[in-house]
């Protein structure tokens, strides 16, 4: 098994290095030990020994023995070709380390067929005069299992020395590259940029670009190397031919340092997985690559179990109802997270850590995609659209308004003991008429003036008495407030003794209470005047010889006058309450104007959020912006205010009295109810809420308020419940909401498969949180459109893994091979004991497992190699 368990990682490679076996090395005395020591000091993980026109088999064998466990030695050879005119083109053949036992045969073959033996070199005029045929040598290198690198760019003896003034010459040069060259060796980053921008588009292919020390052990040698993301093996070298851009980097610092990301470093799991069940982890300790980790294995081998165990080891706000997940024995699971500052965080059942990362369980996206309402809600959340206030808090004020309206309505419907509505103007008018007649009937022309005066005095006496009582209460209230306020001020002054100058003065309300007392005395005086005036009226009537019982007459007049006054006052109260009810109804009708504004604002916010997402966030690099645009390439999001009439009427049908809408031969009860309410569109609904007369009752246009006032239209529910259903967000959000209008590849959700809906949901989920935190996805192929996986998700994974760790469990070979997983973890289940093996795609054992386990694995490898013209 591979010693590189974390798979492909960035390491320093030097693929052009000379030893004293080269004729032009100035320091022939340098030992093999010093060579290895210098390479270690340069932190080189793999070196190709490429001496001029010779493979020193014994030296390479000794270097290999000295470097075991520290540096990989690849045998190689540098040639001077016949191409290039005055400055010939140099190229190199590099061979597998596995050929070391047969290296002498390889060298014998090369030397013989290319005329590189000692005698040939001597006959041809010495080392400086040795040339080989480029095509012949390159063909032979490939047949012997090697790869060909050629000098390019501004490097000396580069392929640029081949003349290409005519189109015919240019085509010959292109043919040479396409047929014989595997890798370009350049002088550095500037050459690499020119090749990517100019050369590769012209030759219609991409080759790896490397820079090497070309060390001859001279003091002037420049310490060059290339960062290569691969196992330090020849198979790793072959990977850069398949992935010439993603696995090769020419720069000073490690590409790992280009973007600092939090990643899951290790998962430890041991012992039983479910209490009382035989299945168990056998001392699992998985060190994870920080880029793309692919977990593969047959069904039942524990792929999902290890990812669920990972999820369960963290403090997690996600509510998971899956019983099997909840029964995982988390006592035996420990996870290590490497933070961006380079420190480690350990999470376990004893000390669960909360980290922000994206974990998609098996089938999770499909569940969301199958439910349009949940999908819409999730998308709004991803765009950062949340209600700014809880529905219950929003609805609190509206409920208070409904309470007032309901109280007024109930009040107007009250009856007296005889069953008569007693809170109507008609009822009061009848009472006023009745008592006015009584007073008129018991008085004569002689007594009318005196009685009228008596009535007025009595009315004034009642008002003054009420006002005096009110003044007494207010004086007591002011005095109590004065005591309370001054006590509070004294307490504050005591508290702030350390802050001189901030003391508050106590308050004295004696002036206002004095004024109120004076007013009270004035009223008392007027009250006495009224009493004396009525006593005088009685005396005058007696003196005038009125034969009636004056006391009884005046008592009756007074009694009837009180009743008359009550009806007059009550009528005023009724008129005021009706005005208040109408005002409250107007306020209620205005509620939805504010709701409409809020809906329109939320609609604009969703569309603005998506535009902002497309433009990218501040601080993103152009590559990051391009990646997010790639993710969103087939998605368009607008927003609409959606009014669902079916849901709206379903709710109303539950509230109203259905017996009022019996089915007939012409219309069903529901259709009759809909005709009465009159709402067929969002515009109608707004009109209804504003109190406009769009309802039909008894063949007359009317308002929803009039419908609500009809008690017989409600049974166990009341008009209060209908108001709630229409005006409270708690209820109307079920049939009225802002929804994202999505299109994926030009199609709306209803015309997409579940897999396609899951696809655009995943894209949005990735685009809204693309960088930094780990992304764990259990079996994407179960949830997503297969075309998307092949054409889009693979290139997305290849890009996004630069910025966040991606961990997938999958049966899809394309996601593993063509997305170029840095690490492949193979799950095994032997007699209910789960174990894992791990390594890179270039590891032969892992490659066999991929081909054995994943359908299409072999084809995926072949397609990947053919894509860049891999030359066997």
Q: How would you summarize this macromolecular structure in one to three sentences?
A:
This protein starts with 9 loop residues before the first strand and ends in a 5-residue tail after the last helix. By secondary structure, it is α/β, with parallel strands linked by helices. 48% of the residues lie in helices and 15% in strands.
Q: Which spans have pLDDT < 50 for at least 5 consecutive residues?
A: none
Strand count, sense and barrel status of the largest sheet are: 10 strands, mixed
**Helix segment count?**
29
Strand content: 15-25%
For this structure, the quaternary state is single chain
Helix proportion of residues, in percent? 40-55%
What is the tally of beta strands? 23
- Between the first and last Cα atoms, what is the distance in angstroms? 25 Å
Category by helix and strand content: alpha/beta
Strand order of the largest sheet: 14-13-10-11-23-22-12-21-20-15
Shape: elongated
Q: Calculate Rg over CA atoms.
A: 46 Å
Give average pLDDT, whole number.
87
């Amino acid at each position: 098994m591979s010693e590189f368990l974390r798979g492909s990682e960035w390491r320093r490679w030097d693929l052009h290095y000379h030893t004293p076996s080269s004729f032009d090395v100035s320091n022939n005395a340098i030992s093999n030990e010093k060579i290895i020591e210098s390479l270690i000091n340069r932190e080189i993980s793999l070196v190709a020994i490429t001496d001029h026109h010779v493979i020193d088999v014994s030296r390479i064998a000794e270097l290999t023995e000295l470097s075991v466990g520290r540096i990989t030695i690849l045998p190689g050879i540098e040639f001077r070709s016949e191409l290039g005119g005055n400055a010939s083109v140099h190229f190199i053949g590099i061979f597998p380390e596995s050929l070391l036992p047969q290296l002498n045969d390889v060298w014998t073959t090369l030397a013989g067929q290319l005329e590189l033996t000692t005698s040939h070199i001597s006959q041809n005029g010495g080392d400086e005069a040795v040339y080989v045929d480029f095509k012949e040598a390159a063909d032979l290198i490939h047949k012997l299992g090697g790869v060909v690198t050629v000098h390019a760019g501004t490097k000396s003896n580069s392929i640029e020395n081949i003349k290409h003034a005519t189109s015919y010459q240019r085509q010959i040069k292109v043919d040479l590259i396409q047929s014989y060259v595997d890798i370009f060796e350049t002088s550095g980053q500037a050459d690499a940029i020119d090749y990517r921008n100019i050369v590769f588009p012209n030759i219609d292919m991409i080759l790896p670009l490397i820079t090497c020390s070309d060390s001859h052990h001279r003091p002037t040698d420049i310490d060059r190397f290339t960062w290569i993301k691969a196992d330090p093996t020849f198979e790793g070298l072959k990977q850069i031919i398949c992935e010439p851009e993603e696995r090769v980097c020419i720069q000073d610092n490690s590409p790992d340092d280009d973007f600092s990301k939090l990643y899951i470093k290790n998962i430890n799991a041991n012992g039983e997985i479910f209490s009382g069940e035989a299945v168990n982890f056998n001392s699992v300790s998985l060190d994870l690559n920080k880029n793309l980790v692919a977990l593969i294995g047959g069904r039942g081998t524990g792929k999902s179990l290890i990812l669920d165990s990972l999820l369960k080891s963290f403090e997690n706000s996600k509510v998971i109802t899956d019983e099997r997940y909840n029964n995982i024995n988390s006592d035996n699971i420990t996870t290590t997270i490497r933070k961006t500052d380079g420190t480690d965080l350990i999470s376990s059942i004893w000390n669960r850590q909360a980290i922000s990362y994206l974990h998609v369980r098996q089938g999770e996206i499909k569940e969301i995609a199958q439910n349009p309402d949940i999908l819409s809600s999730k998308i709004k959340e991803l765009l950062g659209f949340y209600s700014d206030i809880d529905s219950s808090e929003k609805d609190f004020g509206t409920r208070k308004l409904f309470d007032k309206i309901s109280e007024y309505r109930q009040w107007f419907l009250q009856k007296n003991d005889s069953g008569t509505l007693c809170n109507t103007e008609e009822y009061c008018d009848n009472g006023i008429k009745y008592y006015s007649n009584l007073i008129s009937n018991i008085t004569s022309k002689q007594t009318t003036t005196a009685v009228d005066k008596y009535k007025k005095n009595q009315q004034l006496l009642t008002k003054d008495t009420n006002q005096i009582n009110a003044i007494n209460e207010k004086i007591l209230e002011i005095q109590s407030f004065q005591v309370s306020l001054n006590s509070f001020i004294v307490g504050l002054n005591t508290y702030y003794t350390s802050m001189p100058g901030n003391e508050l003065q106590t308050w004295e309300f004696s002036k206002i209470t004095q004024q109120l007392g004076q007013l009270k005395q004035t009223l008392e005086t007027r009250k006495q005047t009224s009493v004396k005036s009525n006593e005088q009226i009685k005396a005058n009537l007696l003196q005038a010889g009125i034969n009636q019982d004056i006391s009884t007459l005046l008592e009756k007049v007074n009694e009837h006058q009180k009743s008359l006054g009550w009806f007059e006052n009550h009528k005023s109260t009724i008129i005021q309450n009706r005005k208040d009810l109408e005002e409250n109804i107007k306020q209620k009708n205005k509620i939805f104007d504010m709701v409409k504004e809020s809906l329109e604002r939320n609609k604009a916010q969703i569309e603005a959020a998506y535009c902002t997402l497309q433009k990218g966030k501040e601080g993103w690099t152009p590559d990051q912006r391009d990646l997010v645009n790639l993710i969103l390439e087939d998605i368009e999001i607008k927003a609409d205010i959606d009014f669902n009439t079916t849901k709206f009427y379903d709710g109303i049908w539950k509230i109203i009295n259905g017996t009022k809408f019996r089915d007939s031969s012409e219309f069903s009860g529901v259709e009759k109810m809909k005709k009465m309410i009159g709402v067929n569109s969002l515009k109608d609904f707004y009109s209804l809420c504003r109190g406009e007369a769009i309802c039909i009752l008894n063949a007359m246009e009317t308002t929803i308020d009039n419908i609500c006032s009809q008690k017989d239209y409600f049974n166990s529910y009341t008009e209060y419940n209908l108001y709630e259903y229409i005006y409270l967000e708690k209820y109307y959000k079920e049939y009225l909401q802002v929804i994202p209008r999505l299109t994926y590849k030009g199609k709306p959700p209803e015309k997409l498969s579940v897999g396609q809906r899951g696809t655009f949901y995943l894209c949005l989920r990735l685009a809204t949180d693309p960088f930094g935190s780990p992304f764990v996805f259990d079996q994407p192929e179960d949830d997503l459109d297969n075309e998307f996986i092949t054409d889009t998700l693979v290139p997305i994974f290849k890009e996004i893994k630069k910025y966040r760790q991606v961990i997938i469990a999958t049966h899809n070979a394309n996601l593993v091979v063509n997305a170029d997983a840095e690490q492949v973890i193979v799950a095994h289940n032997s007699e209910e004991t789960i174990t894992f093996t791990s390594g890179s795609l270039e590891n032969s054992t892992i490659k066999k497992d991929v081909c054995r386990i994943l359908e299409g694995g072999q084809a995926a490898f072949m397609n990947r190699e053919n894509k860049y013209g891999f030359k066997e």
